[in-house]
Each structure stands twice: as C-alpha cells, then as structure tokens.
STI1 domain-containing protein
Amino acid sequence: RLAMEAYTVALKYEPDNKSSKSYLEKAAKRLAASGDAVDNMSLAGQSFSVVSEWDKSQRGRKSSQDTRTHYDAKLDLKEAEKHKVRGNAHMANREYKMAYEAYSAALDLSPKGPHSHVYYSNRAAALCYLERYAEAANDSEQALKMKPSYGKAHARLGLSRFFMNDFKGAIRAYTSALQHDPENAASKSYLAKAKLKLEQQNNQKGGKVHSDVRRLLNDPDMHLMAKKALNNPNSELMEDPEMQSIARKAMSDPAMMEAVRAVPQVQSP
C-alpha cells in the first residue's frame, strides 16, 4: 500500500512515467493477491493528501530559507560596513596593508552588495599606496562595472595607470573622473601631470630633433641664424645644409618651431 501511495505521488508529477505506472500495477496486484482490497479512490485521496502535505512542507521550508537568506545577507552587509569603516580608519593612519585587508574582508562578506563598488574602489586606493598598481587598476575597473558613474573609481583607475606609465589611460580615466566630480583638485592636478608626462614621452621618441632644440636654446648665435633663415627662406643662410635641416625640422615639429621663435637664453657663467 505504501508503495502504491509513493508511485501515485510520483505519477502526479510525471503522469507519463512508464516505470512508475508499471510498478504501481505490480503493487496493486500484490496487494490484491494478499487479500487486502484496494479502493482506488480512497488510495488516490490518501496519495493526494500526502502530496498536499508535502507541498505545504516544501513551501514552508522555502519560505523559511528565503527569510534566513535575507536575514543573513543583511547581517553580512552590516559586518561588511564595519570592515569598511575600519579600512577607512587604517587609511587615515597610513596603515595601508591593514586597510587593504579590511576592505578585502568587506568584499568577502558582500562581493556583490549595494556598497561593493565602494569596497573595490577603496581597496584600489590602498593598493596604490602599496605600489601594487596593476591590482589597483583591476579593482577600480571592477568598481566601475558595478557603478560606472562612481567618480572616485575613475580617479583611482587614473592614478594606477599614471604610475604604470600608461599616461593615455590615465588621461582618459581622469577626464571621466572630472565629468562626475568637476571640482576635484587632485583629479585636475593629475590630469595635467599625465598630459605633461605624455608630451615628454612623445618628445623622447624624437631624440635627435629635440637635441637640436636644446642646441638652439643654448647657442644664441645658432638660434639667431635659424630664426633669420626661417623668416626669410630666400636668404643666403638657407644655402647652408645645416640651416636647411633645421628649417625642415622646424616646419614639421611644433617643439622645434617654438624653439626657433623663442628668445635665446644666454647661459650664466
């Protein structure tokens, strides 16, 4: 009888299951052979009663689990916030390794919570102070995936890229940071530094040209000759191959042109 009840329950969920049907028939025959009459309607009623009770227990269990999960999530978030506060205190005291550990603990408790982008961004700041710039960039990017408008994460991405000598990346990140926080003095300062560094980096690639720039700035006579030649392309000075070379470079290189036009600086003895 218990077997029949079990297979009847199974067929409620899988009415076309041949195996359950077969075993249900076998169980019914054995029950009949034992002399225990089978009232199908009564059995069905008992079976569906079992199903109903099972359904109720499952719904109750799920509701209890959902309530507990929600409670645990709130508790984890509360603890994560405590770790964030500790991390901020460590940052203020320049205890950057301890700050990193505190933010990591917050992320362990709440990796995808409502404040997780802050934990990632703050940990990126700690990593920058620890000179772990690649990791800082990764944390900043993770924060921005969660909240693209978070200005601090853009700024920390800019800082990490600046110290990785990725000045183009730093410029992009700080430009984005200032779109979200236009008055941030640190972002403005580092954006200017990144632009200057990129310019210096580009200038170094034209090594010989810029050695000529230094020569012009340090040699007043040479500077004056170059300036005259550039202002008057038909002058006799332009017959000098060196002057021709300087003129060509000046026409193609803004730094060289600026050096030619500048007032020559006489070095002090």
Q: What stands out?
A: DSSP finds 13 helices and no strands in the chain. The two ends are 115 Å apart (CA to CA). The chain has three domains: 2-71, 73-205, 207-261. Residues 40-92 form the longest helix (53 residues).
